[in-house]
Design goal:
8 strands, alpha+beta, Jelly Rolls, 42% strand, 4-stranded antiparallel beta sheet, single chain, 156 residues
Length: 156
């Protein structure tokens, strides 16, 4: 009887702790006026080249931690991916993985590079599947950062 009561108490305590935690990870957005000016410029430039915005989002990021963005890409379509990070960060990296978790793209920029806080690359997928795009930025002075991702698709 004591074992059953102890087990019930343990299950109740575990259930209370589990229900108190939110199992859904929510991506928070952010706003940075400098980044938004760059976003508008990218939109205009890419529209002139025949691209439309397929997906875009601002995202709150933490220095030195990757933020995963999942995107469905269609085989043979021409995409342009753009990541814009906080202008004060010293390092920016973007990795892209296919559904088998093979890295298909890697780009790195440092503060001081021309357009150092912008990483942009074209991609034509060989298969229609979900891809994981993982941007990261490193900033010595700020822990919480703003970033912006854009996925553009060629239509003309």
């Amino acid at each position: 009887m004591k074992k059953r009561a102890l087990f019930s108490l343990f299950c109740f305590a575990f259930a209370m702790q589990a229900s108190a935690q939110d199992p859904v990870i929510k991506r928070a957005s952010c706003y940075d006026e400098g980044i938004m000016k760059q976003v508008d410029s990218v939109r205009q430039t890419m529209a002139k080249q025949g691209f439309i915005v397929a997906k875009e989002s601002s995202m709150a990021m933490e220095s030195e931690y990757e933020m995963a963005v999942l995107v469905p890409l269609t085989e043979g379509s021409f995409y342009q991916f753009v990541f814009i990070g906080d202008i004060t960060s010293r390092l920016y990296e973007v990795r892209m993985y296919d559904s088998d978790e093979r890295q298909v793209i890697y780009q790195k920029k440092m503060w001081g590079d021309v357009d150092g806080n912008v990483i942009s690359f074209p991609y034509i997928p060989k298969f229609s599947e979900f891809y994981a795009i993982r941007p990261v930025q490193v900033n010595k002075k700020k822990k919480q950062l703003c970033g912006y991702v854009m996925l553009l698709k060629k239509v003309k």
